């Protein structure tokens, strides 16, 4: 579509969690640093909470890419697992040959022995659970029991729980207080602050191959923030539509008007942003029309020859 028009190599606002587009904002940088520090010190449970669209999955991909060769990682994108399926998943990830017919106690013993072997090889095993707020209560409890596996000095399995704010509600249940007490680090992922929005847009564009001047006008950025509140996924969706609108007019710049049309077409945008976008769409053409009519009528009324 617009890649050639704007001199891009790839789409800058794709929703695919590509680590090439990981923006090092203060919140994301601090959370990633906490994760790396905690894992390198062999802490047990770590919890990361963020609203929908704040970049949790991209953060987890960045974490996986940042861990060294001494880590063996397992990533669970879909937490809808039974306790047995969780053990099978972990067994497979750490290289255990198993069959579904294997008794649970035997599988647990095999997992324990394999984790001990890996620890002796100086390998740390990390299990990352995305969308953890959706994990069944019984499976969460099974996860806690797996973290009981330890040597005299270290945990054999480290767990990172990543989820939406509902994860806190889940962990506040009285019957999960044992797991909650084991969470060593908790971090909250924030959106992109207003002052960093221009840098975020610029970073995504340059990562996609753009080498020109500022592509988004100041007015477009201001409207974009009001419509998204700094939520990265919404920023990406609306920015993509705004670039399409600019491309449709063969414009070299994304203006406030392009942004307004993109926001009006995105029902997930925030109400204040949609209100401002509608005002922009209806007000400015009206102002332009009044100005054009005035330019024709007023000189005649005043008896001025143009």
From TrEMBL:
Determine the domain of life of the protein's source.
Bacteria
Q: Where are the transmembrane segments?
A: 281-302
Listed A to Z, the keywords are: Membrane, Transmembrane, Transmembrane helix
- Domain AAA+ ATPase, chain residue ranges per copy: 42-187
Asked whether the keyword Membrane is assigned, the reply is yes
Q: What CDD domains does this protein's entry cite?
A: AAA
Q: Does the keyword Protease apply?
A: no
Record Pfam families = AAA_22
Protein name per Swiss-Prot or TrEMBL = MSHA biogenesis protein MshM
Q: Which organism is it from?
A: Cellvibrio zantedeschiae
Gene name linked to the record:
mshM
């Amino acid at each position: 579509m617009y890649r050639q028009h704007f001199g891009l190599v790839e789409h800058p606002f794709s929703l695919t969690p590509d680590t090439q587009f990981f923006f090092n904002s203060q919140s994301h940088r601090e959370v990633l640093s906490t994760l790396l520090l905690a894992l390198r010190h062999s802490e047990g449970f770590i919890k990361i909470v963020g609203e929908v669209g704040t970049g949790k999955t991209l953060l987890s991909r960045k974490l996986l890419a940042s861990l060294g060769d001494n880590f063996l990682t397992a990533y669970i994108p879909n937490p809808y697992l039974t306790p047995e399926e969780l053990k099978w998943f972990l067994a497979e990830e750490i290289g255990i040959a198993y069959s579904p017919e294997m008794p649970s106690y035997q599988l647990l013993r095999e997992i324990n022995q394999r984790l001990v072997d890996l620890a002796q090889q100086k390998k740390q095993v990390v299990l990352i659970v995305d969308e953890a707020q959706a994990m069944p209560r019984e499976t969460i409890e099974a996860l806690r029991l797996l973290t009981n596996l330890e040597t005299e000095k270290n945990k054999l399995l480290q767990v990172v729980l990543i989820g939406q704010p509902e994860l806190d509600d889940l962990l506040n249940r009285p019957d999960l207080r044992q797991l909650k007490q084991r969470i060593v680090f908790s971090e909250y992922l924030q959106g992109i602050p207003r002052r960093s929005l221009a840098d975020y847009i610029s970073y995504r564009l340059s990562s996609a191959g753009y080498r020109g001047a500022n592509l988004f006008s100041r007015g477009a950025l201001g409207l974009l923030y009001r419509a998204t509140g700094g939520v990265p996924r919404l920023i990406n969706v609306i920015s993509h539509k705004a670039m399409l609108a600019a491309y449709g007019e063969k414009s070299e710049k994304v203006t406030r008007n392009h942004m307004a049309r993109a926001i009006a077409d995105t029902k997930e945008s925030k109400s204040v942003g949609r209100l401002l976008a509608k005002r922009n769409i209806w007000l400015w053409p009206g102002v332009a029309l009044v100005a054009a009519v005035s330019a024709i009528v007023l000189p005649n009324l005043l008896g001025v020859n143009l």
